[in-house]
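notes to self, project folder thing:

trying the whole complex as one job this time. last attempt i did each chain seperately and stitching them together was a nightmare. two parts in total, labels are on each line so i dont mix them up again. if this works i'll redo the older ones the same way
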Amino acid sequence: MTCEEALKKLYDVIDKEASEMDLIEVQEHLENCEHCMSRYQFEAMLKTFVTDKASVKADTHRLKANIMDNIKQESFSNRVRNNPFRFGAVAVSAVAALIICIVAAFTVAEFYRHKTYTYQFEKTHMNATVNSIAAEQAVNYLENDLHLAMDENRSPFQMAGMTYSNVLDRKYLHVHFSQGDSHISLFVGDATEFSLPDFEEAILGEITYYKHVCAECQVIYWVTGSAVGIAVSEDKSLDLTSMFPLLRAM
Amino acid sequence: MSGPIRKLVSLMSSRQSEKVKKAEFEKEAMVHIDSLYRTALRMTKNEGDAQDLVQEAFLKAYRFWDKFEKGSNCRAWLFKIMTNIFINNYRAKAWTPQTVDLEDVDDDFLFGQLSALGPSDNPEQHFFNKVFDDDVKAAVEELPEDFRLVVVLSFLEGFSYQEIADIVGLNIGTVKSRLHRGRKLLQKSLWEYAVKNGFVKEAAK
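result (full assembly):
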């Protein structure tokens, strides 16, 4: 290989684009040619020099946080925008707080969007019962620690079953109340782990109670301290709110 | 009993899938933010524009995250998005036809200049010491945009010629020739900075 040929491959070699054959030939040449060797070394140094000096180590933590915030907002507002129930929700918002309406609107949409989704939850858990000691502990926990207990004076419902369940990787306590054909399912979880429909986005940490009624069921959920409770019933004639002492005050 | 619970669970699962997407995006894409910002800085030449550019690129990437082929090169994909935005939006602001006179600059311009100073121990090291960090940044930023883009992608980001061709949307030959010309301009510019900082005078001693 001549000097001319070797120098022709200069940038290919430095940029690590040269073929293995070329590389071997160039290396052979460089071992015997001081001039080309120093040229190669200089160009390699120059590249490293520019690369090092022109790269800045900037702090991008803030920028990253901003971007993730924007992504959150965008995906949230997209859902509201794409929501067929938006106009209905806006009308209601004349009375209700705007934010609650947004939650309501996309919750309704979500309820219908996944009609085909089935979950084997009931199959697995509805027949499970916990033993009486665990049940008593759980009731105490509900009553004293979480203030989530159902008000016995106002509610003819009996506890029909209780179990700890994992749904979507989140652990919560599921209590099943029934009276005749009416049922209430109460889910209790840790608010920090148990994230409901974008609680942190929609509710902004201010609102701790939300009621939703759709064609087929009613749902209330609320947060007390670090606990979140959800009560679901398909019986729409029930006044779910009044059955929980804490919620009556709200 | 089946109706309400199934709906509640499905509602939770849809929230969940949005969260999974966010988490996945953060893990796969957001980790390249330093790299994108570094290039954006050299391209836009100021922090404000660079931040806007990076932000815009990531938001667009998130919107098209479903289109990203999992397992392929995420960093190159992000750079392609960012480069597109840069070419379409930022360059348009002050685009002027770029003519560059490289007649008098040879490949070995800088090497030749240093060799011409005569034998001394390690003139390269003296030279590099006389070019300050800010000079190097300025030399890169002074490159005409077409050259700057490929130089930054190659030097700073270490992309291969083929990757750069894909990112910028050029054929590989054009990438190589722009990189080559960019190098010449860089050499010339770095030499001028070194001279301005007193390099030749010291070397002559």
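what i see at first glance: Residues 165 and 172 of chain A are 6 Å apart (CA to CA).
need to look closer tmrw
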